[in-house]
């Protein structure tokens, strides 16, 4: 019997999984593969980003916020068809100001790196993924939980297959590939922006593009792998809407027609960071090389 291929996506907060690589996960689930999302924190320090959400003061009550976001995450996982695990850490929040306030005691970004690494190693050894997906060293944006998510994911990828690392965390299992997901590229935004304006439609990307620092390289330069998944963009959007505290259903997220997205940019983008199997770049499949190894 052919072994089922398995993918694990490690994210900082509930809702990150639905805005970064969600259509890819839905595609692989539909293809019969096993996919798990690991969420490192409860998102209890998050703000209410949906102006129509009630109660509007929920963010002032972290315990209640945590409970609601757990419910949202359960619904999103159901929509995507993925397994889900909480790593169980406190949201670090996004410290702002000068000087920035200290991180909350015991939060994800503040605990020693080895503690959440061991927890993630345990989950990896239980689920035994062939592919792990997380953020790059920037976190995608400089939230301390996103940066720590990167650090923990890379450390756990390296440690999970080593019998001398965290022996109490289960039998060793070595994932074969590690990817960074790249959700926002300037080239994609510009392409959709221009197409909308040329058809006489308003574009949600104008403000972003106007503020884009032209001196910064486009993340597309780092992309090695583009997965075609346009058929699952509606599933991605439904999962996003499940995070009702975070996503305004009338927001720019949902203003570009799926047909236009499928025509102009039908893929989600990844960067191959580690590979223990032979593969040829550029890729169109996160399991490239893995299929041949596992099914040999």
Outline the structure in words.
The chain is α/β, with parallel strands linked by helices and 296 residues long. It has one domain: LmbE-like (Rossmann fold, 3-Layer(aba) Sandwich), CATH 3.40.50. 35% of the residues lie in helices and 15% in strands. Strands 3-2-1-4-5-7-6 form a seven-stranded mixed sheet, sandwiched between helices.
What layout of secondary structure does this protein have?
Layout: E1 6-11, H1 16-19, H2 22-30, E2 34-41, H3 62-80, E3 83-89, H4 114-127, E4 131-134, H5 144-159, E5 177-182, H6 186-198, H7 206-211, E6 225-228, H8 233-242, H9 258-264, E7 267-275, H10 290-294
Parallel strand pairs: 1-2, 1-4, 2-3, 4-5
Antiparallel strand pairs: 5-7, 6-7
Fill in the keyword field for this structure.
296 residues, alpha/beta, Rossmann fold, seven-stranded mixed sheet, 10 helices, 7 strands
Short description:
This protein has 10 helices and 7 strands. With about 300 residues, the protein is an alpha/beta fold.
Name of the CATH architecture: 3-Layer(aba) Sandwich
Which secondary-structure class do the elements indicate?
alpha/beta
* CATH-defined fold name: Rossmann fold
* CATH H-tier superfamily: LmbE-like
Per DSSP E runs of 2 or more residues, the count of β-strands stands at 7
